[in-house]
């Protein structure tokens, strides 16, 4: 039995469809880790025990396969250490200091299978910048897909993980394999999810309170939209920063802080992250972004630390 373990986003899903097509796999099981958790859970480990061959796609989890005694093909594009397990064939241009815009491109390059899925993986990972890559443009043009249609298909595929629907994430590669790429634009289950997500985004943004150019936004939603809310506030609505709180995300709280490049000169995000971690919070990020998951009764403490740095 062939087992494919893949990331839950468009790149992971298109990479899976490309692999199945390239190898002409008639029988396979594909699984995603729990959404938002970069680990193999017990469900995945049970299937690994039963599998004859394993494929791991677009998951930066080299440590998870070090102890596996099954023939494994590990395809990725993230920076990562070499896998020492001789049972694992690691295919990643980053190991040689090269870059790939998506795992879908790595799969396509390795197996020489190129189609619209190859391009959609890139659009899913780097957004609008994907259209600056000539090959992405050529592949979409070949399928007569416009830029807007490609972005829409990515939005529809990603609606599954944003809705925290692991079962639909795992069904998605077969939806790609069984439908022409243009037909995905009218695939009803994904359209309904995307509409519900769009409404939740609008409702959240409608609650924005602005002070000194920073939007403070609070909402409750089971959808994993917090980063999208923050991005829209800064990139589309033009706020210098956005501090966003989802007060009830499956029993936990999410806090997300994004700032514009000009505000990055005033706010030291790494200091805030370090202080949050020092207080025991699960926090991470980079120069312009901070994300934190905490207990709901700890929201005030997290916000106070961030606001202290803003003052």
In short:
The protein has 311 residues and is of the alpha/beta class. Helix content is 44%, strand content 19%.
Task: Describe the protein's architecture and organization.
The chain is of the alpha/beta class and 311 residues long. It folds into two domains: 2-192, inorganic pyrophosphatase (n-terminal core), CATH 3.90.1640; 207-310, Roll (Diaminopimelate Epimerase, Chain A, domain 1), CATH 3.10.310. It has twelve helices and eleven strands. A six-stranded mixed sheet has the order 6-7-8-9-11-10, with helices on both faces. Strands 2-1-3-4-5 form a five-stranded parallel sheet, sandwiched between helices. Helix 3 links the parallel strand 3 (53-57) and strand 4 (71-75). Helix content is 44%, strand content 19%. Helix 7 crosses helix 9. It starts with a strand and ends with a helix.
């Amino acid at each position: 039995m062939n087992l494919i373990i893949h990331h839950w986003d468009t790149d992971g899903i298109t990479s899976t469809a490309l692999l199945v097509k390239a190898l002409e796999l008639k029988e396979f099981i594909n699984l995603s880790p729990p959404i938002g958790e970069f680990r193999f859970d017990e469900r995945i480990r049970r299937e690994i025990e039963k599998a004859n061959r394993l494929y791991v796609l677009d998951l930066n989890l080299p440590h998870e396969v070090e102890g596996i005694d099954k023939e494994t093909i590990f395809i990725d594009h993230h920076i990562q250490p070499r896998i020492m397990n001789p049972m694992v064939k690691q295919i990643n241009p980053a190991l040689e200091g090269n870059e790939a815009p998506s795992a879908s491109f790595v799969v396509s390059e390795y197996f020489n299978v190129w189609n619209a899925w190859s391009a959609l993986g890139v659009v899913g990972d780097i957004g609008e910048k994907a259209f600056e890559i000539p090959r992405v443009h050529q592949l979409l043009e070949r399928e007569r897909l416009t830029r807007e249609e490609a972005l829409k298909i990515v939005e529809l595929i990603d609606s599954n993980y944003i809705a925290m629907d692991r079962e639909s994430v795992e069904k998605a590669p077969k939806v790609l394999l069984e439908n022409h790429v243009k037909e995905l634009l009218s695939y009803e289950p994904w359209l309904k999810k995307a509409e519900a997500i769009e409404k939740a985004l609008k409702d959240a943004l409608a609650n924005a309170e602005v002070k000194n150019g920073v939007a403070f936004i609070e909402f409750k939603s089971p959808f994993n939209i917090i980063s999208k809310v923050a991005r829209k506030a800064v990139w589309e609505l033009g706020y210098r920063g956005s501090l966003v709180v989802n007060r009830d995300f499956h029993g936990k709280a999410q806090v997300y802080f994004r700032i514009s490049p000009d505000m990055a000169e005033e706010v030291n995000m790494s200091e805030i992250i370090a202080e949050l971690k020092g207080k025991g919070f699960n926090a991470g990020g980079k120069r312009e972004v901070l994300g934190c998951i905490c207990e709901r009764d700890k929201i005030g403490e997290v916000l106070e630390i961030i606001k202290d740095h803003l003052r």
